[in-house]
Each structure stands twice: as C-alpha cells, then as structure tokens.
C-alpha cells in the first residue's frame, strides 16, 4: 500500500472525534478522510470514500457500531474495522469479533493503544486489550470443557515471532529493533503469550518454543 492508511471515524460525539482525529492525523502513516456521527452515516461514507479502515464507536444513534460493522463486513470485506468504545464488556467484545472487527480498543486508553491498533489492523493482525485476552482464554477453556473444537492456532504470527526471539535469548530492546515495534509492544506480546499459554516465565516460554519447533534444543 502506498501513502497513509485512509480512515473513516464514526462517533456521535464531535469532541471525541476531534480528539481521536488529533491522535491519528499526527501519525505519518494514518489519515482521517471522513467522519460520521452515527452508524448509518458511517456505512454511507464508507461506500462513498472507500477507506482502508473504519473506526466505529458502539453506542451511536440510528445504527450502532456493531450493526454498522456487520453490514460493512458483509458488503466491503476488504475494509478493516476497529471498535472504539468505553465499554469494557465481554458481551460487546465477542459481538465485535462476530461482527468482523479486527480489534477492540477502550476509549480510556485510546491515546496509548489506538495508533498501535490501527497499524495492527492494516497488517491484518488482531488487536485486543489485556482484559479481552482474558475473556478469550476463558471462552477457550469453557469450549474445551464442553468438548467443542478449538482454533488451530493458539497464538498469532506476530506472537510466534516474538516467542522465537525470546527463546533465542534476545532482550526486549533487541526484539523491538528486529521487529520494528516498540519495547512496550514487545512486553505486551510477552504478557499475552504467558497468559494464552498458561506459562510463568522466560524459561517456560523457551521450553514451549522448543516443543513447538521454533528453535533447536
């Protein structure tokens, strides 16, 4: 892709849109090309502007962000979608995933997480805040207890890259430089790996990497 990612921003509060736009437009690889005040307007603008990414608030008039996400996922399958919300709520989180969202970002930490979430979405990687990861694990364990099928991959491709480098003995700073990500992002991936895999420390991560064939014993 050439040029910055083109973003549609939908929230019914103009002040929120202004704040989010300031965060995004200050990044050279991101630009807001359209703003919507409700879900129906978001759908219309997405069709007119053909953005790369739509950021949708959940609680909006006419159509909610989740309803808009379902429609956009169905009619514009190439569009990436992020849900931006004040609701730290498992039900909304799972609904967002079912609606086709690439990520779920809390407004309370948007200044910290939103840019990273946009970049992850543009790489077709999921972005989940830590509480959402916990919810996913709980759902995974519930499904296992009921004997239901599990997803084939327990970790993402990026997490696998981080895991391999950790197991090879690289520091967080070295991993950040190798993968062109921040040290904070490396730390988040490491925490997600420990949580997802039920492990406690670097040694156990290394043993897992050996069993998974990522490094030689």
From TrEMBL:
Q: Does the keyword Phosphoprotein apply?
A: yes
Residue ranges of the Response regulatory domain? Answer: 6-122
4-aspartylphosphate PTM positions read 57
Q: Which Pfam families match?
A: GerE, Response_reg
Residue stretches making up the HTH luxR-type domain: 148-213
CDD domains (alphabetical): LuxR_C_like (cd06170), REC_NarL-like (cd17535)
UniProt keyword annotation of DNA-binding present:
yes
* A biological process from GO: phosphorelay signal transduction system
Q: Which Gene3D superfamilies match?
A: 3.40.50.2300
GO MF entry, a single one = DNA binding
What keywords are annotated for this sequence in UniProt?
DNA-binding, Phosphoprotein, Transcription, Transcription regulation
Q: Which domain of life is it from?
A: Bacteria
- Supply the name of the protein: DNA-binding response regulator
**What is the protein's species of origin?**
Catellatospora methionotrophica
